Amino acid sequence: MPRKTQVSLTTFNSEGRLLQVEYAKKAAMLSNTIISLRLEEGLLIGSKNDYKNKGEIRFFGTRLFLINKKIGLGGAGFFQDIKMIVKKARNHSKAYKQNYGEEISVRQLVRDLAGFIQEFTQTGGVRPFAAFVSILGFENEGPLLYQIDPSGVFLKSRADSIGRKACQVKRFLQRRKIENLTIKEAFNLIFLAFRKNFEGDEDKSSYQFSLVDKFSAFKILGVENMKKYFQ
């Protein structure tokens, strides 16, 4: 009788990657897509429910969250995993302010959150998070945008996408000059990126956008607030 092959949490594939982490990445790519842009005057993040079957978004999808006044988070992947990461980020941010009397920096939150996510890749009794997260916030020197993947690796970016077809969206954004875009132009660029890479209607009410700049706190915009930005 042939022996069954057991795959542990620390089983590596032929390329030296952890199998469970690779499975988590593939699962997270089943979700809707999030697009983030870092502009000179602020940061913009948008998502759209492009599932044809509404029942599909029960477990996988995208969400935008407020962490503190100047930091927001977009998560793509398994909802329960995203919620755990958001809870950790909020609690960590709150504890930092209580201990040091000031808001945590974007860089510090990203490093600490990436360490938390990485612990789940090699700790017994748990599995890696099936979620990608984009963290965006404003500091004294300007806006910052980071992505953290299920392995705990984080990258700084000017234009980013997570979720389904993220690679195609990134290539689309790389062909555009976004450094000097206005907020209104950035809204329409994200809308165009969704139109070019996904099938479906152009109903703007199915979009969710969040915005932060040096003058205002991170806020999730309602449908009425978005109308003034779209052409």
Protein model, in words:
- This protein has one domain: 4-Layer Sandwich (Glutamine Phosphoribosylpyrophosphate, subunit 1, domain 1), CATH 3.60.20.
- It is globular, with a radius of gyration of 18 Å.
- Strand 6 and strand 7 (154-156) form a beta hairpin.
- By secondary structure, it is of the alpha+beta class.
- The N and C termini lie far apart (67 Å).
- It has a five-stranded antiparallel β-sheet with strand order 8-1-2-9-10.
- Helix 2 packs across helix 3 (106-119).
- It has helices spanning 19-28, 79-100, 106-119, 166-174, 183-197, 223-227; strands at residues 33-38, 43-48, 60-68, 71-78, 131-139, 142-148, 154-156, 159-162, 207-212, 219-221.
Topology at a glance:
Layout: H1 19-28, E1 33-38, E2 43-48, E3 60-68, E4 71-78, H2 79-100, H3 106-119, E5 131-139, E6 142-148, E7 154-156, E8 159-162, H4 166-174, H5 183-197, E9 207-212, E10 219-221, H6 223-227
Antiparallel strand pairs: 1-2, 1-8, 2-9, 3-4, 4-5, 5-6, 6-7, 9-10
Helix pairs in contact: 2-3
Brief digest:
The chain contains six helices and ten strands, in the order H-E-E-E-E-H-H-E-E-E-E-H-H-E-E-H. With 231 residues, it is of the alpha+beta class.
What is the total tally of β strands? 10
CATH superfamily: Aminohydrolase, N-terminal nucleophile (Ntn) domain
User: Number of helical runs?
Assistant: 6
Query: How would you classify the helix and strand content by structural class?
Result: alpha+beta
State the major sheet.
5 strands, antiparallel
Bin the helical content. 25-40%
**How many domains?**
1
Q: Looking across the biggest beta sheet, what order are the strands in?
A: 8-1-2-9-10
CATH topology: Glutamine Phosphoribosylpyrophosphate, subunit 1, domain 1
What does the average pLDDT come to?
83
Q: Low-confidence segments, ≥5 residues, pLDDT <50?
A: 1-7, 53-57
